C-alpha cells in the first residue's frame, strides 16, 4: 500500500479529459509479444479488499495505453504494491493477496507464484538466477527465494518491524534496505552471506524511498511518521543525503511539519532528484543545499499520486488515483510541464516500471 495514514487512504499508491491513446476496456490475452525497452507498466493498486488490482501498459512508440494487460478480467488480485523487471521476467509483489507473481513479459503470462506470504510482500530484488529477496510490511524478516523455482529457501532475520525497498549500488555485493513502517533506519544486506551487515544508519522517522545521485550519494526521503492517533507527525519530513563511503548523513533538508512527501526518484543521469510534496512534483539538483521553492509540474485538476521519468529524461508520467474505487488516469507531461496526454488506467494507479 502507499504510505499515508489509514484514515486518509485505505488502499495504496494515484482524473481527466481524453486524448489519443485511450484504450477503454481492452485486455491482453497473452498473445502480444513485448519488445524490451518499448513500454512502461502502470501499477493499478485497486480498491483495498476489492480484488481489482491490475497492470496497464503504455506503448512508447504508439503513444497508447492498454488497460489490464494482467491479470485476465476473471482473475482477482488485491493490492499490487510494486513491480520489478529482471531480463524478460517481471515480478509483482501483491500485498493483500500475500504473494509474489512471476510473469513472462513477452507474453504477459504468469509462470510462477510464491504464495502464503503473510507478512504482506512489498518489493522484490533479484540477486541472481537462483536467489532473490522479498521485503515485508508486517515483518522485518526478508524472505529468500529461488527465482527459477519460485520456492522459498530461507529468511534473513532483522530486528526491525518492517522492510521496504532494495537499492543496489553500482558495485559491491550488498543492497541497501529501508525500514519504513514505524522504522527509522537504513541498513545493508550482504548478498553473498545473506546477513545484515554491521553498518546501520538511523536516518529519521519512516524512510519512505531512496535514490542515488550522480555522485553516488544515497538520498533518502523520510515522511516523519505519525503519532498513535494520526493527529501529529513524530518529526518533520526530510530529504537526507548519505555519504555511501562513510555511511553517514551529510545533509538534512526539512519540509514543513505537516507536509506529505513521497516517491523519491532520480533522473536518468542522476543529476536531479524528484519527489511528490502534497500532490505536485518537485525537482532538486543532486548538489543542492536547500529545497526548491516552486514545483516542477503541478495540476489544478489532478492531484498526483505516483510519478516516473522517461529513460531519456524528456517526459514525466504521473498517476492520478481518483476516488480509489473507479478507473484513474495516466498523465503524460513534457519536461517543461506541458500536459501531453491523458489516458484511462485501472483502479487507483500508483506506480510505474519501465521495460
Describe the protein's architecture and organization.
- Helix content is 0%, strand content 47%.
- It has strands spanning 39-44, 54-59, 64-70, 80-86, 89-94, 99-104, 109-114, 121-128, 131-136, 142-146, 151-156, 166-167, 174-179, 185-190, 195-202, 207-212, 218-222, 238-243, 248-254, 261-266, 272-277, 280-285, 306-309, 315-320, 327-334, 339-347, 349-354.
- The protein is built from no helices and 27 strands.
- β20 (261-266) and β21 form a beta hairpin.
- The radius of gyration is 19 Å and the shape is globular.
Outline:
The protein has 355 residues and is mostly beta strands.
Query: What structural class is derived from the secondary structure elements?
Result: mainly beta
SSE arrangement, N to C: EEEEEEEEEEEEEEEEEEEEEEEEEEE
Average pLDDT rating: 89
Largest sheet: 4 strands, antiparallel
Task: Provide tags for this entry.
355 residues; mainly beta; 4-stranded antiparallel sheet; 27 strands; 47% strand; globular; disordered N terminus
List strands and helices in order, with pairings.
Blueprint: E1 39-44, E2 54-59, E3 64-70, E4 80-86, E5 89-94, E6 99-104, E7 109-114, E8 121-128, E9 131-136, E10 142-146, E11 151-156, E12 166-167, E13 174-179, E14 185-190, E15 195-202, E16 207-212, E17 218-222, E18 238-243, E19 248-254, E20 261-266, E21 272-277, E22 280-285, E23 306-309, E24 315-320, E25 327-334, E26 339-347, E27 349-354
Antiparallel strand pairs: 1-2, 1-27, 2-3, 4-5, 5-6, 6-7, 8-9, 9-10, 10-11, 12-13, 13-14, 14-15, 16-17, 17-18, 18-19, 20-21, 21-22, 23-24, 24-25, 25-26
Amino acid at each position: 500500500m502507499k504510505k499515508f495514514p489509514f484514515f486518509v487512504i485505505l488502499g495504496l499508491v494515484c482524473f481527466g479529459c481524453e486524448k489519443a491513446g485511450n484504450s477503454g476496456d481492452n485486455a491482453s490475452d497473452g498473445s502480444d509479444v513485448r519488445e524490451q525497452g518499448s513500454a512502461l507498466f502502470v501499477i493499478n493498486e485497486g480498491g483495498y479488499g476489492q480484488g481489482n488490482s491490475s497492470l496497464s501498459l503504455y506503448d512508447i512508440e504508439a503513444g497508447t495505453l492498454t488497460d489490464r494487460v494482467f491479470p485476465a478480467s476473471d482473475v482477482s488480485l488485491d493490492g499490487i504494491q510494486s513491480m520489478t523487471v529482471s531480463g524478460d521476467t517481471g515480478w509483482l509483489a501483491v500485498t493483500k493477496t500475500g504473494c509474489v507473481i512471476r510473469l513472462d513479459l513477452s507474453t504477459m503470462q504468469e509462470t510462477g507464484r510464491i504464495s502464503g506470504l503473510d507478512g504482506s510482500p512489498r518489493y522484490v530484488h533479484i540477486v541472481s538466477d537462483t536467489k532473490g529477496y522479498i521485503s515485508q510490511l508486517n515483518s522485518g524478516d526478508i524472505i529468500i527465494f529461488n527465482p527459477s523455482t519460485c520456492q522459498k529457501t530461507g529468511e534473513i532475520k532483522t530486528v526491525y518491524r518492517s522492510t521496504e525497498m532494495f537499492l543496489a549500488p553500482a558495485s559491491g555485493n550488498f543492497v541497501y534496505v529501508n525500514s519504513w513502517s514505524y522504522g527509522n533506519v537504513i541498513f545493508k544486506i550482504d548478498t553473498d552471506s545473506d546477513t545484515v551487515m554491521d553498518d546501520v544508519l538511523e536516518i529519521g522517522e519512516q524512510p519512505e524511498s531512496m535514490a542515488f545521485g550522480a555522485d553516488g550519494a544515497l538520498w533518502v526521503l523520510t515522511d516523519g511518521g505519525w503519532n498513535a492517533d494520526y493527529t501529529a507527525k513524530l518529526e518533520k519530513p526530510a530529504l537526507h543525503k548519505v555519504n555511501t563511503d562513510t555511511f553517514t548523513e551529510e545533509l538534512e533538508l526539512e519540509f514543513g511539519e505537516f507536509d506529505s512527501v513521497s516517491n523519491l526518484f532520480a533522473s536518468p543521469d542522476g543529476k536531479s532528484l524528484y519527489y511528490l510534496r502534497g500532490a505536485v512534483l518537485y525537482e532538486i539538483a543532486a548538489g543542492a543545499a536547500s529545497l526548491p521553492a516552486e514545483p516542477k509540474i503541478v495540476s489544478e485538476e489532478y492531484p498526483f499520486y505516483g510519478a516516473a521519468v522517461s529513460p531519456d529524461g524528456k517526459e514525466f508520467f504521473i498517476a492520478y488515483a481518483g476516488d480509489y474505487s473507479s478507473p484513474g488516469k495516466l498523465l503524460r507531461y513534457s519536461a517543461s510541464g506541458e500536459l501531453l496526454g491523458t489516458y484511462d488506467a485501472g483502479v487507483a494507479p500508483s506506480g510505474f516500471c519501465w521495460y
